[in-house]
């Protein structure tokens, strides 16, 4: 079926993902190929000490991205987008969107980027004997209780960004299990919130005499392939104010960006994993069994199908690389040099392969915000060297590629060296892998394992949630998500694999020692650079 026919017959799937810097919409055909796309650039704002996005930006961004996609459909295929086979929404995981009985937002959206729930994290982890990261929704709710915030007694529902958008378009207060696992711990046997921990939380906050029980506030948990509702008349107008798109389209469960990354890289089976590297970074490893101990550096979440996953999440990854690239761009413009941005990235990234194995004694922390793994409450991007350091461009670029994965390496060492987790394959995706070979070699050094980048890896999470929407509509009776992906989506996409280079592995291990030893410098910058 060609793209035009797929559009006419509604044999398409739409995925829209709210990333940290871009809202992206992709439309795929019945062969999972992207046939149209749209996007909207946005940035979080620091408002009264809270990283947030406004509701106005959420909706204007969504409408802009969708309209760009619909315009491309019209221009390329001479068809108006009136119906779609299935729709899915995904977004940055976790955070806190709390609503009252009138469905009004009680406080500005608190994103994953906020490191303001340290007390809640510590107390809940101790209570549950289960790691509760600061960015999880339950940590935000409990911290608000600890802070005696007035809004807490008025909460009737709280959810994630993906859950909020889905609710507004369908009327359904539901959440995909992968995203839900970042709100509150999941029992992988029941595929629902852990009942024991829900009861523990209710008992913990009972002295506050709040007019609710936790289970009343949480969205319903759904696994991949479940019916998550249909686009309402109001939802259709909200997505497409022109009125062209018709109501009644089925939606798959809304998911987090970690889950869509796993789907987009075919990493939903045990012993597989993927690493997403963008503004933030995370490694997702599908586990064969629970970990033997509670590790604050490791989040326990799930795949969109509900399998247990060990997640190493870092708040910072490529922002500092992009900042330096912007500086290099300014220098090129100043000299009158004409160079394509992609070419500039390629030249500088490849220079990194010529650097000293351990970056010549240089040190950097690309912390634009706090970093939970290294226990930094705020961010101070920092570059440090000694007079004896080998300060070359090659080492400088190698340094920033290494340091983008510095905090992640600390977490991965716990999984691999302490918990003896075995990994058969890692797939990398995200902007850092657009330049061939370089990002893969660095990540292979971090993981000490082969790293694959697929032809489709650049499609990202919006494509991943589109695949979940297609799975909802097209799954055969009893067909699992991993079978659907392997047999239909990735049957002919084996990607390019790079094995770890011994010198890179040794060099990265040496660099991480410097990284760990230098953390007091970053802490001093936070304390003294106001």
Automatic annotation (TrEMBL):
Residues 274-471 form the Carbohydrate kinase FGGY C-terminal domain. Coiled coil: none annotated. The keyword Kinase applies. Keywords: Kinase, Transferase. Residues 13-239 form the Carbohydrate kinase FGGY N-terminal domain. Pfam families: FGGY_C, FGGY_N. Belongs to the FGGY kinase family. This is ATPase.
